[in-house]
Request: fold
Amino acid sequence: MWTTAADAVRRVAELPDARGWEVFVPRAVTRREVRRVRAVRQVAGWRYFPGAHGVAPCTCAGCVVRGAYGSRRLRERRPHPWDGPPPPPRVLLRRIEAAADGTGGPVTGTGPGSGGDAGAGAVPGGGAAALCDALHWYGMRRRGPVERLAPLAGHPDARVRAALAEAVGGWSTPGVDALLERLAADPDPDVAEAATDAAALRAPDPPG
Reply:
């Protein structure tokens, strides 16, 4: 944000923990403007984030950089439960079917273009958390059963529909683009945004 030097000092001074904040001056600082120079101890600072010393590091794929120093040993010592390898597709399909046991009955179309009852082969509704978990693992695969998961586009829980868009976005299976187009028209803004972002990542790069 753009502000004055005095306001920047005030904002930083009012923070409960000002470590890590910086003030950038978008011009050259003249010699007359330098009033004082203070040496900072070399032990000041941190490697990951303030207060990280003594805190167990996160080993998810988003935090641990593959190839970084000690990353392999760290992943071996503290494997993250969300980083795979993903279960086989048949296991994931059973989990999706089991997630419906709490409500019974097939998904009835509540999303755009659902056309009412999902019909034969529909995935029953319910168990949103379990469905999102299974879809997360599906998202780690390159291909998947689009036709078996497509009925989830009419699931009454928007979290499931958004997780479906994120899961199939990286697949090369035929039918993904049509499914994302359907989800992009979802009345829930989070679902529509997830589908739109997934479709944008699939779009080919413009010719250079």
Observations:
- The chain has eight helices and no strands.
